[in-house]
Amino acid sequence: MIDAETLAAAERVLALSRAHKLRIGTAESCTGGLIAGALTAIAGSSDVVEGGFVTYSNEAKTAMIGVTAELFATVGAVSDAVASAMADGVLDRLPRVDLAVSVTGIAGPGGGSAGKPVGLVHFGVARRGRPTLTAHKIFPGDRAEIRQATVSEALALLVTAITS
Question: Measuring CA to CA, which residue among 93, 95, 152, 94 is closest to residue 123?
């Protein structure tokens, strides 16, 4: 079930996208489609949401959105560079998309390390004609809380990308 706060944020993204005539795409790893799910939970979202990719494995990121194996070998899957490549890959694969958001991170409870702790999530935001932006945060909580916080942050980043 999607909470009221997330639905309100998704509605804001959709309204702003309509006002700016933008179509959105997603590439999700640690959220497993929750960002696209929040956006498409709103009736009529098909006029804004073009599509999305759930690319949980590195192989899926390569096959579906073109992230290179060399990039994984160099910086690892949880990195600004991979988040950027994921967002760019959405624009490459879905030509009608104007704005893409991507997430890659460690939702836990395992899989973290000293350099990349549980809760670390990298974001990519690509908008046609503009440089791709990246950000990262470390969210506290359990797996569900980290994933929810990631969805909320991704929606907020979309709002910023649309309005700036």
Answer: 152
Question: What is the pTM (predicted TM-score) of this model?
Answer: 0.97
The burial class, CB within 10 Å (0-12 / 13-18 / 19+), for 74 is exposed
Q: What is the pLDDT along the chain (164 residues), one digit of tens a residue?
A: 799 999 999 999 999 999 999 999 999 999 999 999 999 999 999 999 999 999 999 999 999 999 999 999 999 999 999 999 999 999 999 999 999 999 999 999 999 999 999 999 999 999 999 999 999 999 999 999 999 999 999 999 999 999 99
What lies within 8 Å, CB to CB, of 126 at 6+ separation is 84, 87, 88, 90, 91, 99, 100, 102, 132, 133
Gyration radius from the chain CA atoms:
15
Residue located via tokens 């309509």? 18
Handedness of CA 120, 154, 25, 88 (dihedral sign): negative
Domains of the chain: 4-163 (3.90.950.20)
Q: End-to-end CA distance of the chain: give it in Å, rounded.
A: 31
φ and ψ of 5, to 5 deg: -65, -40
Side chain identity, residue 76: G
